[in-house]
Amino acid sequence: MSWFCEQEEEEMPVQIPDDSDFSSFKDQCLNADGWISRYNKGGGDGVILKNNTEVKMTLIHNKTPKGQINVTAETLYDVLHDTSYRKKWDTNMIDTYDIGRLTVNADVGYYSWKCPSPLKNRDFVTMRSWLPLGNDYLIINYSVKHPQHPPKKDYVRAVSLLTGYLIQSNGANCSTLYYLTQVDPRGSLPKWVVNRVSQFVAPKAMRKIYKASLKYPEWKRKHNPTLKPWMFPEQNTLPCINVADLTVQRADSLENIDESGLSEEKTTQSDDEET
């Protein structure tokens, strides 16, 4: 399937990723060819970019600090799935919820993200799919249009062309987390916004995931410890969605808000941007 079908002139039907799509995503995470290292503090604690930061669409490839971390791959996988727990650690998140399920390993969800003031906040509606495969765990998503969840008045609807995680188990209590995203935030943004997202948000989000994973086992023991619908599909109580009711969200069909004149000095920092 094509991850760039938003560039087509007519609306494209949603396709649920198959094994070849997960394999392609894994290859992109592990293949560093053509990437440019930016903001790297050493040991993987930085980002590498495919595109120059002057372009609007930013492709970010990030790996957990110091490469391997002392958290099991299964725990990282649970943390990234558990929307109830995400509300505890994702301080840039305004809201998130699951809309409905497509298959045993695919659903549609909503996520809104707090941008530094006076920028407008962004939100997404995405189709997410996941696959545990041996020592690898993969989660990928891209933006879709859902008839009951149109763009909201107070948000800019952003577009995920392809975003996801690859978690690799490296032993009993050791794993590596890769994060790859290509997002069109919409709006005419000044260069400093793209730079800030690349330099601060991605690597600090990775560190937050790591810290959240250390605390997750204890938290989960007190909050529905056996509830893991991403692992046990029979626990999933979401309403079913017909994939035919969805289309790929094209960026050029959304309103383009001009924020290019906003000054960096006038913005307030979010938690993920503080140094």
Automatic annotation (TrEMBL):
It comes from Sphaeramia orbicularis (orbiculate cardinalfish). One of its GO terms (molecular function) is lipid binding. PROSITE patterns: START. Its main location: other. This is START domain-containing protein 10. InterPro entries: STARD10_START, START-like_dom_sf, START_lipid-bd_dom, START_lipid_transfer. Residues 1-218 form the START domain. Residues 254-275 are annotated as: Disordered.
